[in-house]
Amino acid sequence: MPNHTFDRITDLAKRYSLYSLFKQYYQGEWELARKAAATIQQYIPVNDNLSFQQDHQLDKAALFDYNRLFVGPGKLLASPYESAYRNAQGLVMQEETLFVRQFYLQAGIEVSNKNAFPDDHLGLEFEFICYLLAREGERLQADDSSTANHYAALYQEFCQQHILSWVYQHCDDILTHGRTSLCRDTAIALVRFLQTEEANFLSKEEFV
Amino acid sequence: MAYNEDGYQITRHICPRNCYDTCGMLAYVRKGRLEKITGDPAHGYTKGKLCSKGQNYIQRVYSSDRIRFPLRQMGRGSGRWERITWEQAMEIICERILNLKDRYHSTLPFCLNKYSGNFGVLHSAVEGMFNSLGPTTQARGSPCWSAGLDAQLYDMGYNRNSDPGEMEKADIIILWGVNPAWTAIHSLPYIYRAQEKGATVIVIDPVYTQTARKADYFVQTKPGEDGALALALAKIIYESGNGDQNFIDHHTLGWPLFKDYLANLNLDYLAAQCGQELGRIQELAAIIGSTRAVFIWAGFGLQRHIHGGQTLRAIDALGAITGCIGMPGGGVHYAHQLTWGFNYNFLKDPGNRYLNINTFAHELNHLQEQSVKMLWVSCRNLLAQDTAGKMLRKELDKLELIVTVEQFLTETACYSDIVLPATTQFEEMDVVPSYWHHWIGLNEQAILPYFEAKSDLEIGQLLAKTLNTYRPGSSSFPIEKSPGSFLDEEFNEKLYALLGISHWSELAAGPRQAAVSTTAWSSKTFATPSGKFEFFSAKAQRENIPPLAQYHKGMSPQGKYPYWLITSHAQQGLNSQFQNITKLAKNKKPVVFIHPQTAAVKGVKTGQMVRVYNKLGVITLQAHVSPDTPSDILVCHQGWLPGSETRLNDLNDGLPTDMGRVSTGSQGVAFYDVFVDFDPV
Ligand code: SF4
């Protein structure tokens, strides 16, 4: 395997594991989300004096905060659904959701339970990205760089068409309404990570 | 069954809100997603049209504010919510139920408070689930229409009305304390067509409503004094020889006594009481007395006073004297129960203890035996709607567990330990009748439940199943039966015959109109013990209610609180529902309408915040200066705005109406006998 392929696989693995953590965080089995957030913050230190609290009280506070932001039962303060940002009326399960569904289908992926749970939940969008990155890695390892590049292009397209069009705003909302360091710092980590990804797209485009 | 057209799967629905119109709707679903909602043209009363609330149902179904999952709150009202699974929710509830049962050796500590959030027949499954546990405590009665229902029971023996289409045959339509331009828009075309054919439309209301604007005559009465006006009209019509002696002689009971009563009434006094010039009443009496086909539509508002039942009896008596009752295009119409003849298996009473829904907090507080420990709320937002809100909170604080089944985080849900997400009528199957028109229709399931939402029926079944797993035999609620099998058991031959079908599933082809007489009481045989219209009701007398329809002076503002506070229905809301839907919320803040002169006296302008208060409390509202409101009345439209701390009923003493026990189990609430003062903030 040539060196640059090896580097690309290593880089992919790192990005995959970060996306996978964000996916776990958003898919919100709370224990998983909490652990994911902790790991994310080790990968991407969000500030110098970040102190991730293991204390139980604060832990609960983070859980309640997480639910206020992403779960309910009241108005979601930082909705994790793409349509909530891109649909003029902020509804769920709208055309914007179907565009995401179409994108998944194009890659041969379908969300189970899709008409009860919107396809454009951030946890699912990250899961989709994990799928694309995993395929890219697999193909690279099999020395099939053209298919690998196809997955890489799909990833970039999905990111640019969907993730980058709303997730920054979503993170802003977390920073406006979030009360605990766990939720706020995870949002900062996500912004930093996406900014790096976005910069990579740009540099690739310049290179081309 | 659902059918397909232009790539859509189309299903039939009925709007299950507590609304006159009970509209037929069609849902258009593509790729599993509800894309549009229209009126169902097969519905003969609503004829394919919907009000703005109905048109905006998609906003409600796919609102990102809907409750998605079961959640548990760590500290009522704290906002510290933890998402739990349905299994966990059921475990918590069942453990509490069994623990209470073991501690108290009784099922009375479990209490249910449910009302009209969804009128679907299968929503009675909540009562069914409760009744399967043994005798429990249940709120009973109606905050809405009780006094008027009883009044008509005393006079005519049953709640029956004509098909609303009969209005087209009327010579005179009296819209008395009802505002169909806002609350029953599908009746407007009949009224307009009658008007085109030459009918005279008279609106009687304290407020210059949207309906009043379309009337030929508008009579602005004092709130709670409609009885004085009805009796004055009756007296003048009879004494001027315009009564229908034939009807009176052959179809009524107690006329000599009522005639004497009328003879002794003082017209000047009655006119003063209802705030009219006597000449004006005489003019109206001449119009009404000149014809027979007088269609009187008596609304719910006029009976929301301490003598509300007597008011409706007085209006009924006026109808009887004119002989309009039983005549095509005539009659006194309030609400009917003609198409509600289901078997109501869910409501079989195992010996429950009932609490008056209108004095719920007080009753909880005064229980002699076995206090309530756990409350289940469904189809209700009691914290926003009940009177005595402060006391209610105190009583709720004493409970060990509060469970609320809801679509949105209402005030009541906010104050619960567990919220369970509820489906809308597009996510469940049901059958819904109406209390105004005679159509019945089916709700088919159009889409999958939103996230983890479940119907009241499914929740009942899940709870019963979990309880029986913990302790076999705890609940007899059928856990495997499908919604369709429950419907099989709710229908009966009589109802099928009325609808001209042999199975409820035929309603999928379109709603059906019940084969009841389109003219109420056309046979002139009444359902009273005497078979006649009873001016004198021995049944009322047995209930300690005056046997004759009588005038009783109502309450009026005085002293420290010189204004009425009338809390009528909003155009874009139904009780506490709909105003949380952004597209429907006209006002971001609760508004009070104030007459220009009154506003000037207080130096208040539109948009300014005012404190409205009485001895019970203070609420803050945004002033809107409007000449539609009389100078001694403040009008606020009821509703629930998320995040708003304003509860109109905090100023309401919850005085009981005079009637209501017979039909609903308890008296109604005199919601409109509330007096206040106000100041700019
Ligand atoms: S709220 Fe009333 S008028 Fe509006 S759609 Fe429902 S039933 Fe029809």
UniProtKB/TrEMBL annotation, chain A:
UniProt entry keywords in alphabetical sequence: Chaperone
SUPFAM superfamilies from the xrefs? Answer: TorD-like (SSF89155)
Pfam families recorded = Nitrate_red_del
Q: Which residues form a coiled coil?
A: none
The name under which this protein is listed is TorD-like chaperone
TrEMBL record, chain B:
What Pfam families would the database entry show? Molybdop_Fe4S4 (PF04879), Molybdopterin (PF00384), Molydop_binding (PF01568)
Q: Which GO terms describe its molecular function?
A: iron-sulfur cluster binding; metal ion binding; molybdopterin cofactor binding; trimethylamine-N-oxide reductase (cytochrome c) activity
Its EC top class is oxidoreductase
The record's comment on protein family reads: Belongs to the prokaryotic molybdopterin-containing oxidoreductase family.
Q: EC number(s) per UniProt?
A: 1.7.2.3
Required cofactors, per record?
Answer: Mo-bis(molybdopterin guanine dinucleotide)
Q: Tell me which domain of life the UniProt entry assigns to the organism this sequence originates from.
A: Bacteria
Q: Which CDD domains match?
A: MopB_3
Matching entries from InterPro entries are given as: Asp_de-COase-like_dom_sf (IPR009010), MoPterin_dinucl-bd_dom (IPR006657), Mopterin_OxRdtase (IPR006656), Mopterin_OxRdtase_4Fe-4S_dom (IPR006963), Mopterin_OxRdtase_prok_CS (IPR006655), Prok_Mopterin_Oxidored (IPR050612)
Q: What is the lineage of its organism?
A: Bacteria, Bacillati, Bacillota, Negativicutes, Selenomonadales
Put simply, this protein is called Trimethylamine-N-oxide reductase (Cytochrome c)
Keyword line: Iron, Iron-sulfur, Metal-binding, Molybdenum, Oxidoreductase
Ranges for domain 4Fe-4S Mo/W bis-MGD-type: 8-65
Q: Which organism is it from?
A: Pelosinus fermentans JBW45
